[in-house]
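note to self: dont lose this again. the chain is below, predicted strucutre after it. 462 aa total, dont forget to put it in the shared folder this time
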Amino acid sequence: MKRILLSLLLLTTACNPLVPQKAVPPTAPSNYSVAATAGQEQLPERWWTVFSDEQLNRLENELFAQNLDLRQSLARLEQLDAQLQSAGASLWPTLGLSASAARSRTAAGVYSGATSVSLAAGYEVDLWNRLHDQESAARMRRAAGAAQTRTLLLSLSAQLAEQYFIAIEQRNQLTLLERQIEHYHQLLEIVTERYRGGLAVADELYHARQNLAAARARVPAYRNALAQAQNAIALLLGQAPGTLEIAADRLPEPLPLVAIGLPGDLLTRRPDITAALRTLDAADHSLAAAVAERLPALDLSASLGRSLTHLTAGNVEGTFWTLVLGLSQPLLDGGRREAEIRRQTAIRNEALAAAEQAILTALQDVENALSSERATREQGVLIDDQQQIILQRLELARENYRAGLSDSRDLLDNEISYLNILTQQISNRRQWLSNRISLARALGGSWMEEELKRRTDSKTPQ
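---
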């Protein structure tokens, strides 16, 4: 009997030919198509500090401490920690303690009693690495969850900066619009006096009124955009809408293009790619565990105890023990295990496609951000050229007005044109900021790992 059990043990611990081949993770191309347009400047790890805005830096720190989405993500990470601990517990023996006491009386009036105390231990020999694969799958899911939290950190930092600069843009646009309204009002007064004096036709008067009304009609939209941006920031900070005001009124100057590295760098810098790859690893281990479910299982169990039985004829007391070696092989299960293998295979195929998609999306993000920044810069140069032309016309109009060669209406028209081009410049600069934020988000980084460690270390048991 001992030889048979030993032969079975040696046979079952041999190399397992049924373990499925692991999926080959996707790779990134060697170069970007737009690499030549990149610069040499390196973005700092905490990329928003490049704008040298103290209020933005402070808001980013508050974001990481107060954001409710991040708090939920950290809670999900704790759940994954617990699942990992639960999966790892299967690799260890179990030990239980039981005790009982009983007393009985027969119809004949005979009394008896019994007490016992025992320890019971159990252990499953992981012949096919099924338990290890289940633990490894849980470990990979935990790693994927951490990467998803880092992705959230990167996304939240970009959302906050985006809304912050939108708020500043809207405030600047409102300031310029108020100046435009003032100029339109002055122009309307001039045209009205000219009309009363018979020097202007009614159409000119109506046109001046229309321009003033159109400018005033734009005010609610800017105010609404400002309020929505500030409310979005308040929500990101875990605060009630309407409780936060962005008082800053300066948009940062455009900065030089930054170095983007190689596509392969994204595999380590983009946490969403890391999450996709770890999810693929988890799917590999889950599939291997599902295949191992079809194979024999070897269980060891033992118990040791002591009992005392009280009988009329006397007491019976002694120590008892059992040692069991069990080997089980699934035979019929209605196709349940095969169905689980097909399901896990499909999950792995889905995870592989998702990983490939994550890499391609990351490449697209970088190239789109660079292309957008290049286009915005080109547009900014053209707007600056247009501004210089309008500024020269404005200076000429001022000289003519001072010399008595033109009236104030012509001067106001040129001043309004100049304010209009300033409005375009503000929009262009904010668009450049949006593109730079998108590029920083696309390139990823390693600062999220440090921030995540800080947040998890700061959590104390309740």
